[in-house]
Design brief:
heterodimer; A: 399 residues; alpha+beta; three-stranded mixed β-sheet; 10 helices; 9 strands; B: 246 residues; alpha/beta; Rossmann fold; nine-stranded mixed β-sheet; two-stranded antiparallel sheet; 6 helices; 29% helix; 29% strand; globular; binds flavin-adenine dinucleotide
Chain lengths: 399, 246
Amino acid sequence: MADDRFQAPDYYNLDELLTEEHKLIRDTVRAWIKKDVSPIIEEYAQKAEFPKQIIPGLAEVGGFGPYIPEEYGGPGLDQIAYGLIMQELERCDSGVRSTSSVQSSLVMYPIWKYGNEEQKMRFLPKLATGEFMGCFGLTEPDHGSNPGGMVTNFKDMGDHYLLNGAKMWITNAPIADVAVVWAKSEEGRIHGLLVERGMEGFTTPETHDKWSLRASITGELVFDNVKVPKENLLPNKSGLGAPLGCLDSARYGIAWGAIGAAMDCYDSALRYSKEREQFGVPIASFQLTQKKLAEMLTEITKAQLLTWRLGVLRNEGKATSAQISMAKRNNVDMALKIAREARQIHGAMGITSEYSIMRHMANLESVITYEGTHDIHLLITGMDITGISAFKNDGTQFS
Amino acid sequence: MKIIVCISKAPDTTSKIAFTDGNSKFDENGVQFIVNPYDEWYALVRALELKEANGGSVTVLNVGDASNDAIIRKALAIGADDAVRIDAPTQDALFVAKQIANYVKENNPDMVLLGKETIDYNGSQVGGMVAAILDMPYVSLASKLDMNGTTATIEREIEGGVEVIETSTPFVLSAAKGMAEARIPNMRGIMAARTKPLNVVAAIAADNATEIKSFSLPPAKTGCKYVDADNVEQLIDLLHNEAKAI
Ligand SMILES: Cc1cc2nc3c(=O)[nH]c(=O)nc-3n(C[C@H](O)[C@H](O)[C@H](O)COP(=O)(O)OP(=O)(O)OC[C@H]3O[C@@H](n4cnc5c(N)ncnc54)[C@H](O)[C@@H]3O)c2cc1C
């Protein structure tokens, strides 16, 4: 990739809504990305390899559990800081942000919120430094948008649990030291289990040949009569609401992350359109190009405001799952559209690895699918405003 | 080893430059400020390296108003132990130098490090003035600094070569590229900076010795003109009459 010349757009002076520490955190992540990740990301995406060497740096800039309290090895930052970190990571690559989202919201968050003291002390500090990597197993081959239908299950064998089943599309699975696995008890209730690498019958084959999130590693979790010690069950929450609580946190981060990807595409398109000349003038002087750029910046600015407000609500503990769904859906869709428009502005150059655009565009196809597809989030909003679930087409009334 | 690093605030290099008050003042509206890179990347980081190797303390010193606290926190996040802000609106170089000199005299550091210049007005004056007021040795534009007890061995890049200088503490040094490698703060540093002391002290009475009358921007860049390789006469004509370069 050419030099990372990124400059963040801030059309409505939203920086004034941030504290000095927020800005310092954001600028720190941005500086680290420019120094250590931008120069290598394209190569790793091309090779379809996760750049493992960035793990310590990612930990140092707060990429692993930024809101985890200091007593468990985290920096104890607020939700806006978490969002800004996600924005800067995804500005570079959705795969880098995914690594961080999974570790933070899908692994550390459930251990912090649903785990006991011993589990927290055992896992959180090592996950915060990146010494341990984690993954989150919810999706199954036959249960994606409908995770409640999962078949992965465990039996109480007296002194341990016996886990069977399989999870698919699991970010970081092949490199994970610990997996937060959602499985049904004999009573059919969903619980979280901490499955550790090395447990007999537990394997994590890698998923190959992705055209999207190529710099992030994905795999399966296969459980063949895995004996899970009883102390590895997360005791403090069960039911589908437990994994959904983690998803709220991750989706919130994605809403910020998508803004990062959109900003990068816009910034690159703006610069390119001023430098690239056709018919004797910069292509930025054509109305059609200006329309694209103006609409991009308008959408980014709207998303920034929406997401900042969501962050304030989350800091106050007031953000609802449905509000988070709206932001995730809006922002990822916005970023994907901007990536496509930005790619057009870059002409043929836009399809090469000289620019980040095509990589963002391909990455965002995963982002618009995982953590609740675009349409599922629409149904969540629909259910929230009408009180009627359209998930199953049976018109069930929700109170 | 007690080190004072003087840091100043500078507009981010990507800022749009505009002026107010009849072109006599820089328009700060919408401008993002950063620690002057020469102070941060070279003076501060070298100070931290010396402290890490020899023990001691690094204090960052800034002359300015409360709007400078953000850049001071960044210096603390990178690793300075504490900070002092001499509370005064930014004035000319002599005013700033007098404030720094006064603080240095009262606190007796082994050395005062600062960047070779600030990237806003590029005056390059403060270091020399501080040294002169305190009657201390001053080495400008240093690209290397090694300490052996109280002896400093300093390198300066000069036209076509390198000059090696020896001096002893206390001294004032302005740092240039090569002195150290920029450090990015980490989250631990940012958290630690929350509770590190930032002492605000009153300025001493001092007058400005100079006054800025006006600023003007360079003429707008015009496009590239291409001259045919055979048309040397046209090239000379353009260089002579249009660019007035020859
Ligand atoms: C790169 C990548 C990484 C991932 N990482 C993880 C991970 O770490 N952990 C994890 O647990 N999962 C992960 N996932 C899985 C992801 O969460 C699922 O892919 C997602 O939930 C969608 O499930 P599905 O792919 O089975 O699609 P399906 O659920 O089969 O959906 C297919 C289509 O049908 C639509 N659809 C489904 N139900 C309805 C309905 N009721 N009404 C209208 N339309 C509907 C969907 O919107 C979609 O368009 C990852 C996925 C990818 C691509």
